[in-house]
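Just wondering, does anyone understand what follows?

——
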Amino acid sequence: MTLSHIDMPQTHATKAPVKNTRTRDVLILLGLFVMMLGGLIGLAASTGWDETKEQLMKLSMGQVGLLLVLSLVNYGFRGMRWHVFATRLGLPTQYWQNQRHFIGGFAMSVTPGRVGELVRMRWLRRETGWSFERTAPLVLVDRASDLAAMAVILGVSISLSTAGIAGAVPVAILSLMAAFVVTRPSLLAGMTTRAYKMTGWLPRLMARIRKAAKSLQAFSNPTVMSLAFVLGFIGWIAEGYAFHLLLVWMGADIGFWTAAAIFTFSTLAGGLTGAPGGVGGAEAAMVALLGLQGVPLETSVPATLIIRVTTLWFAIGLGLLVFPVAETRSKKAEYALEN
């Protein structure tokens, strides 16, 4: 059986009973947060609580608020990019509807490989009737745009920084290669077919990816991709700037470009580990790289904790607030479509 002959699931397939997994998901999130917190607390204990507490006390509520605002800049610009892609794909959705989907998906950021964010596609199916295959390109191109923007930021930061980061160039190249493949429909379809012929694994998923790849043609417009890149670049550089400000406030000014390089590299490297949300890997990389810049543990540990809470965990918190709203709205829309 060839890949092209694999039967595809019907758009209006019989629905499986919906299980209440919200409590389980929240417990998983709490568990991951406790794991991250436990690791950083262990490092803080090795340096002395007084020094760590002193560093934390240097920050005012206004400064923490500014870090959160810069994270909102990231989410806002990337949300606008999601809307641009949704419009380009032809989805009959409105701006705030797309923002609801985008922010709500953050609740699933710490699933392995962030596959939980595919919940956005479930909401789109319920509200528009579009199948997985029709909305999959939206998810693929959004992730590719993130990789491209972060790879460029990392490359620029390394070139303008006085510090070198071992492994930064390979990570940037891998990210750009992944973004290139995902945004080239014929290349992605060809690689999917070859992978299936070589392994015979996951035939239905491979067929879906192949079909979704054809729909990526909608994003081949240079103007659209340029706008998407700018929006992603502004969003991610805002969080790099937040990390720089945090280090300055804590008395560890290593320069904007070095701070941006460490933040971006740690985020990408954490994601490459496959750990949910990059938890563990990103924090370890951040503390280690700050140490190489002469930042002591009593500063690097609380700085890492704060930036991760005000970026990743702030996003998850917003997602958890929006998630039930998105679920409710999507179910109502699905009921209206069916009746």
Observations:
- The first helix runs from residue 22 to 47.
